[in-house]
Design goal:
Strand order of the largest sheet: 2-9-8-4-5
Largest sheet: 5 strands, mixed
CATH class of the largest domain: Mainly Beta
Helix content: 10-25%
Number of domains: 2
CATH topology of the largest domain: Immunoglobulin-like
Order of helices and strands: HEEEEEEEEE
Oligomer: single chain
Radius of gyration: 23 Å
Number of strands: 9
């Protein structure tokens, strides 16, 4: 039985749908992650309790980041946010022991511990 033109069109359509599906699967995480908060710098990288610290990056507005924390291996210590915009957050160092901490942000109901360090000095 010879292949009819309809079978060739059907196979071509299946290939196009398959390729389009693969492209969408590849793009989906990139598109969904575009509005995720991203902190690129912490300045200064060290300071004392109640000092101001500036976080800069992207998508840091109140609609994306509801809180900022200093986190150690056991606890998250909420910082007071003094100023917040889409590209910058200024916070006060919370009353914590001296030592090294990660910067963490609250996005929705999740606290995300970032690979950004801050050292609290005595």
């Amino acid at each position: 039985m010879a292949n009819s033109p309809a079978v060739g069109v059907s196979r071509t359509l299946c290939k196009v749908v398959l390729v389009a599906s693969l492209v969408l699967l590849w793009l989906a995480p990139r598109t969904l992650g575009q509005n995720s908060p991203k902190i690129t710098t912490v300045a200064p990288a060290a300071g004392k309790v109640n000092d101001s610290v500036t976080l800069t990056g992207e998508n840091l507005g109140k609609d994306a980041v509801s809180a900022v924390f200093l986190s150690n291996d056991k606890d998250d210590f909420k910082a007071t946010v003094v100023e917040q915009g889409s590209a910058k957050i200024i916070l006060k160092v919370p009353d914590v022991k001296s030592g090294g901490y990660n910067i963490s942000i609250q996005e929705g109901d999740k606290i995300l511990i970032l690979p950004l360090k801050f050292t609290v000095q005595s």
